[in-house]
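Chapter summary example.
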Amino acid sequence: MGNEKNTSPGYAANLMLATLFGIGFFPTAPGTWASAFTLIIFWLLPEMSWAIELLLLVVIFLLGVKSSTRVEQVSERVDPGYIVIDEFIGMALVLITIPKSYVLYLFAFLLFRIFDIMKPMPVNQLQELPAGWGVMVDDVAAGIYALIILQIGILIF
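The structure predicted for these 157 residues follows.
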């Protein structure tokens, strides 16, 4: 049963999504590159309703849970570093709440990366959720932290 689970068409699609089309295989800082890729995608996307963007994120989140679970099963590792679809979701969660602005996007990027790397409570505990849920939910929480700090900054300034 060894290698056939790595070569099935379903696995290839899961790996492509989980690695964000191969960004997860970058040799250094794949999570940072995935977050930067997300910035570019959102900058280039046409304006959409916030509700449509949120619906798309929920769908991508659920697909991310599925693909992350499958990739973890095959690799037999918990949250391997090449799974970066979680960074896409966490970063996107922040971006759908702010207008397109170089300054706001820069702060969104920096805040998300800080919270994703530092993993303050309870973000660090959310990684303990089973399978792909732990992979995805901790980055959603990091995104929520970044979103809150960024929205406070917008209100103050």
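To summarize the output: Residues 4-17+29-156 form one domain.
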